[in-house]
Each structure stands twice: as C-alpha cells, then as structure tokens.
Amino acid sequence: MQRVLAMLAALALALGTAGPGFAQDGQTDAQGREPALRLPEMVVIESPIIENNMVDRFGALTTVVGQEQIERLGAVDISSALRKTPGVTITRYNQVGSFGGAEGGAVFVRGMGSTRPGSEIKTYIDGVPMYMGPWSHPLLDLLPVDMASAIEVVKGPQPQTVGNTFSAINIVPRQHSDEGFSTTVSAAGGSFGTVAQSLSHAGRVGDFDYQLGESFRYSNGHRDNADGRLTSGFANMGLRLNDTWTARLLALAMDNYADDPGPDTPGGVSEGRYETRARMAALTLCNQTDGAHGEIKFFANGGEGVWSDNVPGGVKKNRNEFWYFGMHAKEIVEFAQGGELLLGLDQEWWDSIVSYDYFNGTENTLNTPQFALTMPYLAVSRALGERDGWHATPSIGARGYLHNQFENRLAPFAGLVIGHDDTDLRVNVARGVNYPGLDVAIVFPASKWKQLDPEDVMHYEVGLSHRFGDLAVVDLAVYQDKGNNRYSFVMPPFPPTWTNTEDFDIRGMEASVRVNPLPELSLFAGLTVQRVTPDDMPYAPETSVSGGFNWRFLEKFTLSADCEYVDGMYALRQARKVGDQNTSRVGSHFLVNSRLGWEFELAQWDARGELFLLVQNLTDEEYAYRPDYPMPGINGMLGAKLTF
C-alpha cells in the first residue's frame, strides 16, 4: 500500500506530454515529415519524458524523445533514454553497456521485440538499418545517444515510413543549422566508478555545415563482472549545392563491451563478455521545390558482435559479423489543394559470417546467403478544411515486398485524421510484414527454411487528442496487433524443421497528458495497459505508469524528476520453438530519479555551462529485469557541461 500511495503522490505532481502532431506552423518531425496536425506555439519548458507525439497524415503515431529529454533523464544509452516512454519496456544487466541483444539490454514496444532469434522490431540510425545482421535483433550499444538530436519510436507497423518490421526505433543525428561555431564538452562521474565524457564541435559557413562528436562511458558496475564501456565518434556534414539540392554525409564508428555479472545465487556463473563494433556511412541527397520534396540515401555499414570467455556449448569465442548496404528514396509531390502523393523505393542487401572457436581447438565458420529486399511504396492523402474549424485528412497506400529468398507480399494501409479546432480523432489500419532473417539459414542450414512465409500482423489503432489552450494536452490511443505466421522450429523429431505455426494478439491502451501551469513548469504522466495472447509473452507488463516534471526556479536552477511503475511480468527471451512456454517472471517495481542543475556563464570566454547532480533510484528499490539479476540501488553522478 505504501508503494501505491507513493506512486500516486508522484503522479499527482507529474501530468503531461505533447499530444500527437502538435507542431508549430511550418515545423516538421525529425525525419522531415510534416504532421497532419499543427497548433500555435507554446513557449514553456520542455516536457521531462518525451518531446512530442507526432501523428502523420496516415493517422500513425510516432513518439519522439528529444535531446533535452535525453539529458534530463541522465541517459547513457537507448534503453535508459526510453525507459519512461509510454508503451516501451526495457531490460538491462549493467549500469553501462548491454550484454547481447536480449534480457542483457533490449527495448520492447507495445509487447513486441522479445522473440529470439529474430525480432519484431528493427533499429535505425538516420533511417539506415543498424542491428545484429545474423540474428535479426537490435544491439543497443550500436545506437549511441550522444549523437542523437532525437529518438523516434515508431509504434506499430507503418509501411509509409519503414518496412520489414512491426515497429521501429530510429536515431536522428544532430546537425548544425546556425551560422558560426559551437563547442560543447561534458564530463561526469559517480557511483560504481562510473564516468561519462563527451565532446562535440559544430559550425556553419555559408552553404556548408558540420557536426563532429565523440563520447566515452565506463562503469565498474554495481556487481562483480558487471562492468561496461561505450565509445563512439561521428561526423555529420552538409553542403547546399543549389536552390534545389543539398548533400549530407554521415559517418559513425563504435567500439563497446559489456560483461555478464551472472545470477546472484550460490554457484551463479557469468556468461563472459559481449563486444560490439560497427562502422557506418550514409550519403543523402535532398531536394526541395515549391511543389515537391524528397531524398535519396545511399548507405553501407558493417559490424560485429563477439561473445567470449564463457559461451555455452564448449565455445571459446563466437564472432558474428554483418554487412548492410542499399538505397532508400522517396518523393512527396503536392497536387490540387492539400493533396500529397508519396512515392518511395527501399532497396536493401545484407549478409553475414558466423564463426565458432572451440576450447578443443576446432573451428566452425558459417557463411550465410545474401538476402535482398526491394520495397516500392505509394500513398496518397488529401487535407480538407481548416485547422481552426472542421478538418479531415483521409489517406491510403501500400508497400510491396520483393524478396530474393521468400515469397513476395503486399502491405496496404489507410488512415483518417478528422477533427474540429483543438480536438482530433485519428484512425489507422495497416498490415505489417516481417521476413525471416539470416538466422533461419544459420540455426538449421539443411532445413527447408525457404518454404517459410513472412510473419504478418494487422494493426488497428484509434486515437483521440484534445488541447486545453496553452494549459494542457491530452492524448488517448487504443490499439490491437493481431499477428500470425510466426516462424518457429519443431523438435523432435530430428532433424528439426522450421514452420509457420504461431499466432499472437496484443490489445492495449495508452494515455498521456502534459500540463503547463506556468512557463517555468512542465508536468507529465503516461499510462499503458495491455493484454497479450499467449499470456506468457515476455516483457509485456499489463500496466505501466510513468510521470515526471521539469521546474525552472530562481532563474538559474532546474529540477527534473521522473518516476515509473511497471507491473510484474514474464521475463527472458521468447524462444522460436513450438510448444515452448515461458515460466520466468520478475516482480513489479517503482523507480524515482531526479536531476538538479545550476546554469552559469563565463563572459570572458563567451561560454555558458551547467553543473548538475543526478540521483537514480531515490527510494533504493530492489528490482530486476531478469530473475536473480538485481539492478543497482540508489546511486548518483555529479557532472558539468560547458558550451563555447
């Protein structure tokens, strides 16, 4: 009862988030998409949890966590940046670093993403695929938050935005838009020998701009063998070629590791170390004219995940190398008054090498076939009416899938946004398609994996939002994801075979509200309630609640606080084996974190800075994301940031 009362008291102080699509006039989202809904600017301090909920012209919802929210949450990686986002659940072992891509460090969106091998969600950097190629699931350490101007959480299948997934997470890289130069250095240290450092430099001269950055994070961990390290460097450069075309080049490099502390039980054994490395380059050509805008992006990246020291099965070291390359192109053409035609083509290739070094001196190397996927898509929408009166935006479209190993598919989608003045109703229906990954050719190379069908899901969502002037914005969404053709293997008999046999059903509701009673105060609360079938799907809690506030006082001080309650839930990965049931569970938890900052200026250096104190798990809650893997108790960091 005391925990419930504490949670209610915290939430009483924490009401609010921006409603879907409430951008200022002329504003686009982080990917350049213009939202269907726009309202006048609110000059207030930012929400502490998310920056915005964006609804596009197809009635589809994307939640955006901005750079300020990442800093206020004290986030060292993607999972800590998204831990309070409505509809998102996380796992982790360590203070810094993710061990592999499952319960050691993962993100799940509305109950999806726990399947291994493979996953129902994909992760991207600037729209470029960045996930474990051989096993088709995210590796969070390959998604550095220090380069992010925003993190987009694409909720549900959105064929008009991204294909071959049921949901997505995308990092939008920072870029410099103002004339002149800027340099920012940040450093912090605290509990468990944790240190964090970042340096960025940006500039713009005429038609050329650039943003350079590097970051380093390390922790000894709150337990033995719980240390981790994250390092990254990036460059984002742009050149305006003429009145129509702009070119951008993004380059990124990462080198990380995380150790498994093992179960906190007598005889508990660590599973060693997991290292991740990656390199990425993307060239984007953007065009903008009076009646059309779009881009064409060429990309290539490669990386590896290396598991060593105590791999099961007598393996000394397991190396998983992967490569992606391809092209994404889209163009939006305006027609009539308020009409838009969206044309797009995504072409992707990927392959990998998986090798095992055994303690007995033998080696085994598997070269996977190359997968290729061509995805053309087309959509049309029409905005009718006026923003301050009755208005409606109907839309319809489809994405095609042409795979070099599996059968082709078509994913239609449709939406409607309708409303009056400050109230909007949205409806979205979409089919999601998710092809088997290279994992099906690795696990059982001799099985008839080419006969598998792609997984698919029918997504239904209805949302309602209302704005109470400059005081508050309320958003409500009800959704259902009905999936089938989930691929699994059958064993016995031997040899095992792949088959499409399993279905799932996820039904849920999300509600969020932001209240701005004063320009210096922003309050937030979010609620997610969902039911899943089968009911042992891991990391899909029935109820999760998040809240927080940002309060600027005495001109120079900012106090931020956030909290979350997560129901007890099934844990561990969802194995792709027919008949497997999940019996592992973790209990509920309620966490409270806070951050106090003091801003100052150094006039002689033309600089401004901030000293900050971050305290996490204020109530010293005992909790875990995996049985017998306790997370840290109360801990803190003290740091400073200086911008020239």
Number of strands: 36
Shape: globular
Average pLDDT number: 91
Distance between the first and last residues' Cα: 50 Å
Number of helices: 4
Backbone CA Rg: 24 Å
Structural class: mainly beta
Helical coverage, percent range: under 10%
Unreliable residue stretches: 1-44
> What profile does the largest beta sheet have?
22 strands, antiparallel, barrel
Strand content: over 45%
Task: Describe what this molecule looks like in 3D.
The structure is a single chain. The chain has about 650 residues and is mainly beta. Helices cover about 5% and strands about 55% of the residues. It contains four helices and 36 strands. The strands form five sheets. It has a 22-stranded antiparallel β-barrel. Strand 25 (about 455-470) and strand 26 (about 470-490) form a beta hairpin. The longest helix has 11 residues, at about 1-10. The relative contact order is 0.15.
Which key features would you list for this structure?
single chain, disordered N terminus, 57% strand, six-stranded mixed sheet, 4 helices, 644 residues, mainly beta, globular, 22-stranded antiparallel beta barrel
Care to give the gist of this entry?
With 644 residues, the protein is mainly beta.
